[in-house]
From TrEMBL:
One of its GO terms (biological process) is proteasome-mediated ubiquitin-dependent protein catabolic process. One of its GO terms (cellular component) is cytoplasm. It comes from the Eukaryota. SUPFAM superfamilies: RING/U-box (SSF57850). The lineage of its organism: Eukaryota, Viridiplantae, Streptophyta, Embryophyta, Tracheophyta. The keyword Transferase does not apply. One of its GO terms (molecular function) is zinc ion binding. Keywords: Cytoplasm, Metal-binding, Zinc, Zinc-finger. This is RING-Gid-type domain-containing protein.
Length: 388
């Protein structure tokens, strides 16, 4: 909600700025035209016996400039812009509270685990020296989980750097070493890498070179990828001029970028790691949930001990779908997570509660109860269990 309000206010300021700029340019153009006309009159050829009365021309110019009222027009548009800017600044000060420490709560962290997460983040980003510094300064063991992953991430970034200069060999070496595991997860990464190289050979080499490459490296995939294989064979007709062919989109750098990203994702999968580091995900989720936490902290400012002692937040913190990693359900009434003993139940009104919450509301299997989120009524028999 806050970001929406800020965006709307920014759009209003941007609109006012465009109007002000347009108005200013219009006024300047008007003044410029009148001055140019006066200069043209003064400098125009004339009969020496009847010289131009320059004083009269300048007097007329002054009258015209006064009629334009340049200063008044500019002040008006600038005043409106300044008013919008002032309101925008106040809105930012109101919504973007810089004191985020209000949302802080005393939480017991596993120091060892936190150190591992931070070090792994830097290894994940390819900042190996920084990750090593974290491990050393924290006094962590050289045989820790993060240190074990260090060399795997080093290989990953070497592959990424090679792909950036269109060198597929490191990627193919990794695929060859992990071929069985990739097959188990249904990966066709090896085909995609060879496809990139085939297009490179076709564009920069000869048709014979491309055909040889296809027979050597693409043929093993032909039976399971007929459509893709036929498309690549069609490219042979345009050797050296693929950019002017129906297959020109295959030259787009986006294919290298997408294949590199897929390679990194699958490498992380085989390592048992997420594509994004745990620290970056936690940070992003924290940023998204911070406004709600700040509001709650401000409301409970007078009850600081209670805020610190809370085991469960009294409100839900809505996060985007990218932060939903598991199919779980938390009852909006009891705040309990769904389980086999307390499964989620669908009411006729399409709201969902946990079974125990429904039993408490109904007090009887035959008694009618009101949904806590809408006026609809139901009985336990009307509710149906949901399966995630």
């Amino acid at each position: 909600m806050e970001l929406g309000s800020i965006k709307d206010a920014f759009d209003r300021v941007a609109k006012k700025q465009k109007v002000s700029s347009s108005k200013s340019q219009e006024v300047v153009d008007q003044v410029g035209r009148e001055i140019e006309l006066a200069l043209a009159t003064i400098q125009s050829p004339h009969d020496p016996s009847t010289p131009v009365d320059q004083k009269s021309v300048l007097t007329d110019l002054k009258v015209k400039l006064d009629a334009i009222g340049a200063l008044k027009q500019l002040e008006g548009s600038q005043k409106e812009l300044n008013t919008s800017l002032t309101k925008y600044q106040k809105l930012l000060e109101k919504l973007l509270n810089p004191d985020i420490s209000k949302a802080y709560r005393n939480v017991d962290f596993d120091t060892h685990l936190v150190n591992q997460i931070i070090a792994t983040h830097f290894y994940h980003q390819g900042l190996l020296d920084l990750g090593d510094s974290i491990i050393n300064e924290a006094g962590e063991s050289d045989e820790s989980d993060a240190t074990t992953l260090k060399y795997e991430f080093l290989e990953m970034h070497q592959i990424i750097q090679a792909m950036k200069i269109r060198n597929i060999q490191p990627a193919l070496n990794w695929v060859s070493d992990n071929r069985e595991k990739l097959v188990q997860i249904g990966s066709n990464l090896e085909l995609k890498i060879h496809k990139l190289q085939f297009i490179e050979v076709l564009q920069n080499g000869t048709r014979a070179d491309a055909l040889k490459y296809a027979r050597t490296y693409l043929a093993p995939f032909a039976s399971l990828n007929k459509d893709e294989f036929q498309k690549l064979m069609g490219c042979l007709l345009y050797a050296g001029r693929l950019e002017s062919s129906p297959y020109s989109e295959l030259l787009s750098p986006i294919h290298w970028e997408m294949t590199t990203e897929e390679l990194v994702r699958q490498l992380c999968t085989l390592l048992g790691q997420s594509y994004q580091s745990a620290l970056s995900v936690a940070f992003a989720a924290g940023v998204e949930g911070l406004p709600t936490l700040l509001k709650l902290a401000n409301l409970m400012a007078s009850k600081k001990p209670e805020w610190q002692a809370m085991k469960q937040l009294p409100v839900s913190v809505e996060l985007g779908k990218e932060f939903q990693f598991h199919s779980i359900f938390v009852c909006p009434v009891s705040r309990d997570q769904g389980s086999e003993e307390n499964p989620p139940m669908l009411l006729p009104c399409l709201h969902v509660l946990c079974k125990q919450s429904i039993i408490k509301l109904s007090k009887s299997s035959t008694r009618t109860f009101k949904c806590p989120y809408c006026p609809a009524e139901a009985t336990v028999a009307h509710c149906r269990q949901l399966y995630f």
